[in-house]
Amino acid sequence: MHDNSNRQKLRLSIGALGVVYGDIGTSPIYAFRECFFGGGHVTPDPANVLGVLSLIVWSLILVISIKYLLFVMRADNHGEGGIIALVALLNPWKAKPGTGRYLLMMLGLFGGALLYGDGTITPAISVLSAIEGLDVATPAFHPYIIPITLVLLVVLFAVQPRGTGGIGAVFGPVLILWFLAIGALGVSGIVRNPQVLLSANPWYALEYFLRHGFAGFAVLGSVFLAVTGGEALYADMGHFGRSPIRYAWFCLVLPALLLNYFGQGALVLGDPQAKDPFYNLAPAWAIYPMVVLAAAATVIASQAVISGAFSLTRQLVQLRQLPPLKIVQTSSGEQGQIYIPFVNWVLMLATLGLVLGFKSSDALSSAYGIAVSATMVITTILAFFVARRFDWHPMLVGFLAAFLLIFDVSFFASNLVKVEDGGWYPIVAAILSFAVMFSWASGRRVLGEKWGQWARPVAELAQEIEKDPPHRIAGTAVFFSAQGLVSPNVFRHLKRHRVLQHEVILLTVLTSDQPRVPATERLQLIGVSRGLSRLVIRYGFMQMPNIPVALRLCGKLGLDIDQDNITYYVGRETLIASQKVSPWWPWRRHLFVFLARNAMRNTAFYHLPPEDIVELGFQVEI
To answer: Which mean pLDDT values do the consecutive 10-residue runs of the chain (622 residues) have?
Structure first.
């Protein structure tokens, strides 16, 4: 039994390497270089090399090892991680505007919006920096770097509809080879100049700031590139669990990263003119194989970010923070393997635009970091409130959060100097994404309030049927309703047609704050009167609703439904942007109407058979 447990942990750890550590694992290609030869503007003298290297080493230890692996990953939502799962632990969805929980929800949603900007920059900078290794081998390749990068990115996004199940099986082994290779290159550099190991002493990091003062603060924006991708450890916790992710980090990833950064530092100590220390570490014969391996590793890192964007979008759609979108399940066995066409093509266009606009990984590094560092600040704040909610010792939690925020805020502040040179992009992308979320959620709330004014209690429907019974026909009628309320359209339908099926179900679909709701807890049947029942179906925010499948479970509750003779009565609102004075800002109202008109129909989102649907339309001025 113990051997099986170890084998399972090893298998999950290898899987975690291929999904969780792709982004942070490919950071050595450009992070150390940017500190000296890119945006860091630091002279590569021995004192500076040891100081910057010490900053990178201790950033990896404090931000990844301590913050994420030992603190944040303890705040799981039934085993799931990620910023939306963290927000859901606070259960803020019904909080009133202006309250503390509402502000925390807004903060968390903005953190999610920031990840969309990161989802376009990561593929661009990762793949481009890998292909730039060809320029180290020979300048003859220079004109072809951007075209090759564009082709790789187009292929990457084009294969998304096929799913990642097949290629996912090789992700782990490729990343193992990658970490072994970069670790070996690092050892070769350390052997030539062992003095570099002195940078493991945190005094060199402190001494760097003492010598440079506030001017030395700017290098943190480049140092931060070494820890980008750290948020993936928490976001993908539900796929692999805490232990395998920690095991992979401490046994392979962290040692390989440290060895490679030490090796690059040793190279620059011996040759301050080594403009690309990552590739210059490799002997001449190994540069082309390293470019190929780096390209494979960066594509894997990009795939993980794209899959993360799909997962984030599904969570936001399920929690009613984004309009319904077409979500394709690409694997019958893995719920996490999904494809969202709209998100995929928007990410692709934005990523290609970044490569064409910035033209080099040096320039792209200016746009990279702001979104991730801001998300890390938000994650620490949310983790603090979640820990307080779960009765952690307030003094301990407060001290730990304050300690971590010192580093998070420092990294974020240092990245703000990049705004003019490209850092504006992730900020604009986040604001646009958040505007869509905010407008949609606000619009649904206003629409729900209007609907609540018109709706009537279920008891009135039961009385109406009992008082003036309609003609009954065979079959089942399903009407969608809010809890305990019935749309006036149902009453109009009864009075107009005087016909009703023998079995009537008032169906309410709810999204839980849990990631997944077990099938045994999916349904709740509430009898109202003979032939009239209320049915509540619950899904987790990481599950895809399928109403016909859920209704098949009703037999266990004593409600037999003939799936071949069922009619779904669905309300369809036609929204009209009101010209009257409204508490809404005009742009938000018009944006909501636009989103609603172009959103995926609920009938398709719930997988309702088109031939069994009757739509009850009405106009709503908003």
So the answer is: 65 78 91 80 88 95 92 82 86 81 91 87 91 85 92 91 63 90 96 94 91 80 89 80 88 96 95 89 92 91 86 89 87 68 94 93 85 91 87 84 92 88 90 93 83 81 84 89 79 80 90 87 84 89 90 84 87 72 72 86 90 81 74
Query: Could you tell me which of 181, 72, 83 has the C-alpha nearest to residue 130?
Result: 181
Residues composing the chain: 622
- What global pTM score does this model have? 0.86
- Rounded Cα distance, 434 and 419, in Å: 19
**What are the structure tokens assigned to 331, written together?**
């694997």
Strands 471-480 and 566-576: parallel
User: Is the separation of the CB atoms in 110 and 434 below 8 Å?
Assistant: yes
- Return phi, psi of residue 526, to 5°: -125, 115
Phi, psi angles (nearest 5°) of residue 485:
-125, 150
Residues 6+ positions from 473 with CB-CB distance below 8 Å: 499, 500, 501, 502
For residue 80, what is the DSSP state? B
Residues in CB range of 18: below 8 A, 6 or more apart: 168, 170, 171, 172, 173, 174, 175, 300, 304
Token duo for residue 500: 């009703």
- Cβ atoms < 10 Å from Cβ of 554: 18
The answer to whether 219 touches 52, Cβ cutoff 8 Å, is yes
For residues 457 and 455, what is the distance between their CA atoms, to the nearest angstrom? 7
Domains and CATH numbers, the chain: 2-428 (1.20.1740.10), 455-621 (no CATH)
CA 420 to chain CA mean position, Å: 26
User: Beta-carbon neighbour count of residue 393 at 10 Å?
Assistant: 11
Element (DSSP H or E) covering residue 528: strand 523-529
